[in-house]
Design a protein that fits this description.
This protein has seven helices and 15 strands. With about 270 residues, it is an alpha+beta fold. It has two domains: about 100 residues, Ubiquitin-like (UB roll) (Roll), CATH 3.10.20; about 140 residues, Molybdopterin biosynthesis MoaE subunit (Aldehyde Oxidoreductase, domain 3, Alpha-Beta Complex), CATH 3.90.1170. The strands form three sheets. It has a five-stranded mixed beta sheet. A five-stranded mixed beta sheet has the order 6-7-11-13-8, covered by helices on one side. Helix 6 runs antiparallel to helix 7. The radius of gyration is 24 Å and the shape is globular. The C terminus is likely disordered.
Length: about 270
């Protein structure tokens, strides 16, 4: 009887040990999960840590949240996931320590690259007059500027103000990628891309892009390419406020294979 009891106790300890090992395997990984725009409002948090089993994929993590927040599942077709600040496939594997973000369609700090190109996300008003002189050089023959500012209406409703938010580190990285693509496609001298975040009043500049070049065609084409690529691929979102409520602006789901499809803008000829 005593031996049987000891044997059962050993069996129980072994079973407990196996269960602990299984639980450890199930939550062997910890990842940081980020939500933006209307997705953040659905789940109620901007960021949190989550445990995952080994071998989990991005879609597994999303399904976990979709079960907790059924409305989130409605956005599955338009969400772009990212892993460690790079767009990722839904079936991409997740590793311990990864940062996984679920990005709604983009609505279309600071750093610099070649020849003092400028890429900035700012919370203070953008003052174009103070930027123009820095974009010009004696060897330039053209400077093209896109100044996007807040209008007072949207689909027949009177806009009160806007709010912009961004996945900031990834947004700056994508802005720099756009700058590198522009340099590869067009004979330009300098490019600047500056986007405002936070609350913007009517008439305030939300995005300012400038391109300088020896010839006007390259500057025009590169500036158009920059705003189109930014609206499609940089994770920035806009919320529009009206007298009767607020809505997140509909946007485009960023492509996962490239920022811009080929042949969208043709390199300019010298004119």
């Amino acid at each position: 009887m005593f031996r049987a009891l000891v044997f059962r106790q050993r069996q129980w300890r072994t079973l407990e040990s196996l269960c602990r090992e299984r639980r450890d395997r199930i939550t062997a990984m910890r990842v940081r999960v980020l939500f933006f725009g209307q997705l953040k409002e659905i789940v109620g948090v901007a960021a949190e840590d989550a445990g995952l089993s080994e071998g989990a994929r991005v879609e597994d993590l999303f399904e976990r949240y979709a079960r907790r927040f059924p409305k989130l599942a409605e956005f599955r077709g338009s969400i772009a996931p990212s892993v460690n600040q790079e767009y990722a496939e839904w079936r991409a594997p997740v590793m311990d320590g990864d940062e996984v973000a679920f990005l709604p369609p983009v609505s279309g700090g600071q750093g610099a690259t070649v020849q003092d190109d400028v890429f900035q996300l700012v919370r203070q008003p953008i003052e174009p007059s103070g930027l123009l002189d820095n974009m010009k050089a004696p060897e330039d023959g053209a400077l093209v500027v896109f100044d996007g500012f807040v209008r007072n209406n949207f689909k027949g409703n009177r806009t009160l103000y806007l709010e912009y938010e961004a996945y900031e580190t990834m947004a700056l990285g994508k802005m720099r990628e756009i700058g590198a693509q522009i340099r590869a496609k067009f004979p330009i001298r300098r490019v600047a891309i500056i986007h405002r975040l936070g609350r913007l009043e009517i008439g305030e500049t939300s995005v300012w892009i400038a391109v300088s070049s020896a010839h006007r065609s390259a500057a025009f084409d590169a500036c158009r390419y920059a705003i189109d690529a930014l609206k499609r691929a940089v994770p920035i979102w806009k919320k529009e406020f009206f007298a009767g409520g607020a809505i997140w602006a509909e946007g485009e789901t960023p492509p996962q294979e490239a920022i811009s499809p080929p042949n969208e803008s043709k390199p300019a000829t010298n004119k």
